[in-house]
């Protein structure tokens, strides 16, 4: 069972208002609108600091199963983190054109949106959502 679950009692906009860093807060609002438009899902808080769009149910061969967000982001103190659930391993061409960033398995770390090409990010996000729709249809 996932520790991070949807929390509809928390409002993503209220959470964003608590971000002290002006640029991070402004970027979070941009990502909120950006991912709402691209995904077609309304934003939902997952835990206290992660904003997710859509969800899916997974079940591993080991028997472990749970629910997770299809795509999302978290405006952390150090950077913005964009989560795509298929991971970033198949996006090397796009990432080469994205701009300044760091990678984790399913995490894209961005200092500020001004450092990246938003059209490239949109392409990555749309491809991610397409992969998820094929792997985990609604």
UniProtKB/TrEMBL annotation:
Residues 27-128 form the YdhG-like domain. InterPro entries: YdhG-like (IPR014922). Pfam families: DUF1801. This is DUF1801 domain-containing protein. It comes from Hirschia litorea.
